[in-house]
Automatic annotation (TrEMBL):
Listed NCBIfam families: PPR (TIGR00756)
Assigned GO CC terms: mitochondrion
Chain positions of PPR repeats: 107-141, 142-176
Keyword rRNA processing: no
UniProt keyword terms in alphabetical order: Repeat
Gene name per UniProt: ppr
Membrane-traversing stretches: none
Record-given protein name: Pentatricopeptide repeat superfamily protein
Length: 444
């Protein structure tokens, strides 16, 4: 009956089937079934989003359709929010279309999530289209809408559009806050090609941002607060993934400085970084950990390994608590750039120090590091081997891409074919679940 109900609500038979099989017996169906009613589905959606398994949301939705459960407005909010956090614009637009097909017009908060998703995907054209759709449905934009739109255009380096949005905001009597200036800086960073005045404009906006008072009321809405979305996440600020962290990792009043220091690292501009440090000192402000990570990155990406190490050591000595793992990771990543003997030695020593201090690599970071270390064609390959050993000690298997890079690196060296390490890596690569001969794990 559930299948019949889903068919007769106007949904195509293929959609109703989703990714299921008619041959499943009741026990098998129950095992695959996510939930039985809208309340349970809302709980499942929230749990999946919290676990960052956002790729499962489409499956959950297919399950709802198969069960004949009518999604509520709140369910669509959660589905779109989860897809936004998973940086899946395709899923966001899919759920928007499904919502509209059921006669539910997104409200302004939901449209803000959709525009934010466009920014994460650097699709400013779609962001503009969403704004036009809002006008069509007579959904009035709010301050957050313009901020999402501004930062979406900034992510694509569309400085012309960013300026136009700023003019519209000013004409509407909306003041420019720290997120506007962050967007202006990001737009200059992403605009191609980089020009001689890029640094000058970024520093200018840092100065001008001081006209904005931190005492001003936040533009956050009850909707975003209730959904657990910070403004940094909504506007795709570089500190978005750290905005929920505690322990002094980032001072949220330094948003403009965060974006500017990040820009200096991306541009490998040490002079700009030094100017920002002077400005910060003159303002009587202290570096937070995020800024220090960018300082280390800037030094190392510009090729100054000694200064990067000195910055790391000098800052960690001022901390009352053990240095956060983020500082170690920034040092390791930057030191491996160019695979210089000095840099690889720094990476090795830092990894060993991390290990002795009880810090471990997770699957993503370990895989990224392994790819970087495997690119060392002339060194002794100690760093790549060390990363592999650290991951194996935690029963972590690198991604197939990382495994391939590591295996090729080993095979390119003078190692006997019966070497235990080479044999183990070859076997792991051969049986990798995401490899050509492997079977991808079910999404159920």
């Amino acid at each position: 009956m559930k299948l019949l109900r889903s068919i007769f609500t106007g949904r195509p038979l293929i959609r109703a089937l989703g990714r299921r099989y008619f041959a499943a017996n009741p026990e098998e169906y129950a095992r695959r079934n996510y939930a039985d009613n809208i309340s349970e589905y809302n709980t499942v959606i929230g749990s999946i989003t919290g676990q960052r398994r956002n790729f499962l949301l489409r499956d959950v939705y297919d399950d709802m359709m198969l069960d004949g459960v009518q999604p509520s407005r709140d369910a669509f909010h959660s589905l779109i929010l989860g897809s936004m956090k998973g940086t899946s614009l395709q899923d966001v637009l899919f759920f928007r279309d499904e919502m509209k097909s059921m006669g539910l017009v997104p409200d302004v908060a939901l449209y803000n999530f959709i525009i934010s998703s466009c920014g994460k995907s650097k699709n400013s054209d779609m962001a503009i289209q969403i704004l036009e759709e809002m006008k069509h449905y007579e959904v009035k934009p709010n301050g957050q809408t313009y901020m999402c739109l501004l930062n979406a255009c900034a992510a694509s380096g569309r400085l012309d559009r960013v300026y136009a949005i700023v003019r519209d905001m000013t004409a509407a009597g909306l003041g420019l806050n720290k997120f506007c200036y962050a967007g202006l800086i990001t737009a200059h960073l992403n605009k191609q090609p980089v020009t001689e005045d890029t640094t000058t404009k970024i520093l200018e906006y840092v100065e001008r941002s001081k006209e904005w008072s931190s005492v001003e009321a936040s533009s956050g809405t009850a909707e975003t607060v209730m959904m657990g979305v910070t403004e940094e996440e909504l506007y795709n600020i570089v500190t978005a993934e750290y905005s929920h962290r505690r322990g002094g990792f980032m001072n949220r009043q330094l948003t403009v400085y965060h974006v500017a220091f990040h820009a200096s690292a991306e541009l490998k501009n040490v002079e700009m970084m030094e100017t920002l440090l002077d400005m910060l000192m003159k303002d009587g402000l202290s570096l937070d950990i995020f800024i220090m990570v960018q300082v280390i990155r800037c030094c190392l990406q510009s090729g100054d390994i000694d200064r990067g190490v000195q910055a790391f050591q000098g800052f960690t000595q001022t901390l009352r608590h053990p240095a956060p793992v983020d500082l170690y990771l920034a040092l390791v990543e930057g030191a491996m750039i160019g695979h210089t003997p000095k840099g690889m030695k720094v990476a090795e020593e830092t990894l060993l120090e991390m290990n002795s201090n009880g810090y471990f690599l997770n699957g993503k970071v370990g895989s990224d590091f392994l790819i970087a270390a495997a690119g060392d064609k002339t060194g002794d390959y100690i760093v790549a081997n060390l990363i592999w050993d650290m991951m194996k000690a935690q029963n972590l298997t690198p991604t197939f891409t990382a495994m391939t890079a590591y295996l090729k690196g080993l095979q390119g060296r003078d190692i006997p074919k019966d070497d235990p390490r080479l044999m183990l890596v070859s076997e792991t690569h051969k049986n990798h679940p995401n490899g050509p001969k492997g079977s991808n794990p079910r999404r159920w």
